Amino acid sequence: MADLLEVRDLRTYFYTSQGVVKAVDGVSYDVRPGETVALVGESGCGKTMSALSVMRLVPKPQGAIVGGEILFHGRNLLTLDEEEMRRIRGAEIAMIFQEPMSSLNPVLTIGRQITETLEAHQTISKEEAGRRARELLHLVGIPDPARRLSEYPHQFSGGMRQRVMIAIALSCKPTLVLADEPTTALDVTIQAQILELMRDLTRKFGVALMIITHNLGVVARYADRVNVMYAGKIIESASAREIYQNPCHPYTLGLLRSVPRLDQPRRAKLDPIEGQPPDLWNLPAGCSFAPRCKFLVERCVQEAPLLRELENQHRSACWVAETLQQKTVLSS
Amino acid sequence: MPETHNSQLTTQSSMLVEVRGLKKFFPVYSGFFGQRVEGWVRAVDEVSFAICRGETLGLVGESGCGKTTTGRCVLQLDRPTAGEVWFNGQELARMTDAELRPLRRKMQVVFQDPYSSLNPRMTIGQIISEPILVHRISQNGGECRDRVDELLQVVGLNPLMAGRYPHEMSGGQRQRVGVARALALEPEFIVCDEPISALDVSIQAQIINLLEELQERFGLTYLFIAHDLSVVRHISDRIVVMYLGKVVEIADRQELYENPLHPYTKALLSAVPIPDPAVEAKRERIVLKGEIPSSLSPPRGCVFYRRCPIAVEECGQGIPELREVQPRHWAACIRI
Ligand SMILES: Nc1ncnc2c1ncn2[C@@H]1O[C@H](COP(=O)(O)OP(=O)(O)OP(=O)(O)O)[C@@H](O)[C@H]1O
Ligand SMILES: Nc1ncnc2c1ncn2[C@@H]1O[C@H](COP(=O)(O)OP(=O)(O)OP(=O)(O)O)[C@@H](O)[C@H]1O
Ligand SMILES: [Mg+2]
Ligand SMILES: [Mg+2]
What we know:
The structure holds two protein chains of two kinds.
Chain A: E1 5-16, E2 19-31, E3 36-40, H1 47-54, E4 63-72, E5 75-76, H2 82-88, E6 93-96, H3 100-103, H4 110-121, H5 126-139, H6 145-148, H7 158-170, E7 176-180, H8 188-205, E8 208-213, H9 216-222, E9 225-230, E10 233-239, H10 240-245, H11 250-258, H12 298-302, E11 308-311, E12 314-316, H13 321-331
Helix pairs in contact in A: 4-5, 5-7, 7-8
Chain B: H1 2-9, E1 15-30, E2 36-52, E3 56-60, H2 67-74, E4 82-87, E5 90-91, H3 97-104, E6 107-110, H4 124-134, H5 141-154, H6 171-183, E7 189-193, H7 201-218, E8 221-225, H8 229-235, E9 238-243, E10 246-252, H9 253-258, H10 263-271, H11 277-282, E11 323-326, E12 329-331
Parallel strand pairs in B: 3-8, 3-9, 6-7, 7-8
Antiparallel strand pairs in B: 1-2, 1-4, 4-5, 9-10, 10-12, 11-12
Helix pairs in contact in B: 4-5, 4-6, 5-6, 6-7
Bound molecules: adenosine-5'-triphosphate (2 copies) and magnesium ion (MG) (2 copies).
């Protein structure tokens, strides 16, 4: 299948008084029509900036996309002018932002926020827009939509606000939705409601979804493929099953081993990743995970490993990926 | 009677903390100047539990169910509206602030947010030595500095970090400082209020291991508040599940996870995602309908009534009592 989104060697940098922050540093990934791809990694590794770059919404003036290509339906978004980009944003590619409270306008009714998006992208009458808004709220499971449309964001709970964000994202029937930590602020039972809803809707409408999260559990249930980021780079990429059964990067392996799992017997002691997350201002030469890595060899501190294909579309940026693979097979 | 289930769980001598019929209501004001009390948020409503010496009691439940308020009432940081809090055989809720002061040393807290809970204008050394100086534990400056060095080492930080400011440290390092500060007065009991929620996944296991090591080394007793049920299972001996200000289930760790009784506990456990697609594909999930009701106007009968998958009409009428369904396993549900 032809790819819907192909990101090639994307570089998004921030120029600050303390130096250049390479928030996204040579990232490549694709999203195929209708599939769910996860982007996983810890705080500050560049997940949000990877998605904002696709929307061309990187905060200016400190931030800028300094290299790479973003092909959407084969067209490089980085060459479009602002007017062309505005037509794509919200209509063909929609984004659900990290903080649902700050991305809804507090002084506009929920109804107005939905109809605004509709009217911006479609020639549609006021009545028609109102009717669509009601349909959308119903679709995302908000009871009594007609009354709810005239309410304000503060009258909605966190879970309901996130539903509204999903309704707005789907309003113009996009082919790609970028969801940045869509459930992080929510309780587990509400999180389950929202994720099941997103999965049903993406299946129903054939929408491709890129879901950004640091929760490996969420990914396991909902993603077809997973990209793991560390310090501005994708360091492992594979199908969800592969990533969990056969992790080929020490960081991924460390993450999977460090979290306690409800389905397994309780371990006496957790197995943490030692050391601290990297400082993007001051990355080491060589592999940026090297200072915390248990599988370190001399080459790791001299030369940064590139993402390379191991087998069946499983890619890893680690010099010792093959030996690691044998070790995990043996130990499991 | 709330007393019964505490005393059956533990013998008096091994009990360090006991909470009986704890209530904490917050007033809700209305009117333009907020002058009229319109109602009460029943943040904690008839909560009872006991914690044995050296034990970790996990406290779980969704946002707003009253976990933090319970912890604060136990420590008397918030004064309870009603109920008793016993610590080491002394009842705290009726004590004056002056009577409480010598006891405060023995009970400490580690907060959720390592970013806002440390004073940004103080160095790490000043932050840790503050309680030592206030309680006049050290005789002189040199002794105090030695104690700070020792505490930093205990939590796995380099003593040279004493000169740094909080913003110069990572989240995990700051949380270690929070733990060092709590340990400064050699407490017996620590309330850990979501101590790892704000940390990166890769750092969470470090802090959990640290808390466990310290417990073993100093014989600490923990009330561990969290919403991540996999972490709570790892660290707790017994677990209390709260919903909307009420305890709905109490059981030993293994019993609770292997044999949850209350429908809310079941839903909560099934909602925890497991990091393995092969397992997730086969897993049944109980997706609850509806939103968490507000504790301002809790439902008349069972607090879980409106979202409960097995509710019957009777559930909406009376408040179910917390009863011992199996030995050491308590649940508040009439359908069990
Ligand atoms: N306006 C800015 N100026 C300077 N640096 C920035 C700015 N915005 C982001 N950064 C840096 O860019 C890096 C990537 O940020 P990004 O928001 O993409 O992280 P993230 O992976 O989404 O993290 P989180 O999980 O915390 O949301 C971070 O290290 C951040 O400090
Ligand atoms: N000082 C206060 N004044 C008024 N209401 C309060 C106050 N503190 C807490 N509440 C209310 O009491 C209820 C319980 O709050 P609490 O902070 O104990 O919940 P929690 O279980 O710790 O939630 P979270 O998981 O979000 O930390 C909530 O409805 C909250 O809004
Ligand atoms: Mg982000
Ligand atoms: Mg709390």
